[in-house]
Amino acid sequence: MSLSRNPLSRRLFAAAGAAVLLLGVASCGGGDEKQAAGAMPSELTFSILSAEGQASSGPLWQPLLDDMSKAVGVPVKPFFAGNYNVLIEAMRFNQTQVAWFSAKPALEAVDRAQGEVIARIVDPEGRDSYTSTLIVRKGSGVTLDKVLACGKQYDFGIGDAQSTSGTLAPLTFLFNPRGIVPNQCFKTVRSASHQANAFAVATGVVDVATSNSVNTVFMRRENPQLASQIEDIWVSPPIPESGIVIREDLDPALKEKLRSFFLTYGQGQGPEADRQRQVLAGLNYSMFRAADDSYLDPVREMVADQKLSEAKAKNDQAGVAAAERDLAALRAKREVQP
């Protein structure tokens, strides 16, 4: 897929100021037409994180959105952006009402954008988790041991600050346990999407970068030549897959229609179910599984672990105590779950 973005996404992604962020938020749903909380909207806006933009991702999602429109009786339009915070803010201001989010942004949406998780993704092999990876150019001689030795000899590509697999997981599982701070370890550190980082590794712009198993599948399908130039040198423990998040203050009847749509999509027998499964296959999904925000608890643990590391680095004893309490509560909850 092309790494170009549509004009709206480029404008939103490049902007750093609050004024431009608000422009992006307003543009995704037509601020003058914002619906009152709990009222039946005249249309829904479905937000999708995509570094490539609508031109390349749109055809994969549009059949699903068309089917959603028919099922819920309200037109559904997409909003593509290449920045997690733009999409979270769009939901917070009720400019988008439904979203496909990876785990960390889904958690952010629950915590500060009135988001409610209704489903999680299942891949074609039946997995509802994926992995973070560290990638290098094949034949480069860059190994995990060399990377962890630091020495400021490598250019490093990391993900968006809100990226579960691009930033949070490598910090939690790889760098933090070893006391490694990327900005102090590498010659340079640049933040970009998984696709941009993969391209940078393959072309020698950076020596090592974060990625994930989903992006590996995507590259092998869409750009096998690029994929053949890259190899993994580290794989994380499983991470909760992406989820479907809706605004919790949507009309209750509409919420149930949305829930039913996702949980039954591509299920059953017959030509229509077969067609829906083909739509899901294009997105590299097999189904949507029922979920609530408790499925994000592993991500909450990662967030608390990162806060603990940051507090220790600042010698913030109050912050350390708070993060340790959060971690203890989450781990206790995990231990009592079946």
TrEMBL record:
The keyword Signal applies. PROSITE patterns: PROKAR_LIPOPROTEIN, TAT. Keywords: Signal. InterPro entries: PhnD, TAT_signal. Residues 1-30 form the signal peptide. It comes from the Bacteria. Belongs to the phosphate/phosphite/phosphonate binding protein family. This is Phosphonate ABC transporter substrate-binding protein.
